[in-house]
Prior knowledge:
By secondary structure, the chain is of the alpha+beta class. It contains ten helices and nine strands. A hairpin with a 2-residue loop joins strand 5 (225-244) and strand 6. The protein starts with 29 loop residues before the first helix and ends in an 8-residue tail after the last strand.
Amino acid sequence: MGAPGDPPEGPPEGGPAGGEDEYRSVVFDESFVRAARLQEFSAQERMADHAPAVRRRPPLRRGLSRQVLILVLLIAVAFGTAIYMGVRHPYQTSAIPQPVEPLRMTVIPLAPEGKVPGHPDAEYLYAHSPAAQYRVGAKGIPLPPSRRTEHFSDSQVVSALTTAKDYIVRSSLDPDVLAGGQVRAVRVLLDTDQLDQFDQSFAHPAADGRHAPTGWLVRFDPAEARLADGQIRVQGSLQAAETDSSTLEVTADHTFVYALRSAAPGASGEVSLFTVRRELHFRFDRDDLRMHTAQLVVSYVQAGPLSCAVDSTNRLHPLLAGQTAKAGGPAGTDPYATGSATALCGSLATSAQPKV
């Protein structure tokens, strides 16, 4: 006897027992039917001659979701902004860096017109000289208010000014450097492409405008003179400017006044003042700014009281209290003035000496 729901004649031959249909578990819901690509024609549509039983439905149009469109738009905007910033970034490097130039130096000794004034007290000499209002040591080398340039940020300009100041302090105020004891503190601040010139200057000094140690730094002959007062007086200025998109230049113009006394045994204890004016031109590329180094391209030095007959290429040989030298060169040159000397030896103006 057949199972309930089976045909009266029983289940089909070869069909599953009990009338179980192998497709009974498949459920065709409304969404499945609507999504079908084939659709049966209506009875009226099938009455037409040669009309097929079914028709193919056009594919469903599925547009991009709003979230996908927004994401694509954001990516496009970000990509466009990156391209624009790459073209218009104010700190990009577009110019080829200039080759490092050798230092050009000029050292001009200034001879006194009479005896070098002296006094037992260095403070007295300072108070009665043009350096009376100068500041002491590195305080006399203040950094100017930094300003960003077209291609260099404010921090990069500050870095250039700071490196230039460090060089000036080490090469003009360090007691060990002044006494001729060491040069490494100055050397490490130079661009590596200038180190050969620096080393050759100290190994083989020459008055050729390229290899004078006194063009790189200030140092005295320790057998002749020594500092009587470590409170060196300083006054001057620093200025930074952009020369092109890959180069900054710093100009330094400072006057240093040293109180010296003789290093010779049994010499008088009187103190005299020695003045050095240094005009230095520094150049910085982006590697220098990163490495805290500088290219020193111009060194213009006036120093006195000195004797023009004594070579000042390697070390300075100051004339001390009571000493004299023959006047030479043009009429008195004042290292406190802003003008530039025009000769390789000049006369130290009387106005540049302390009144004692």
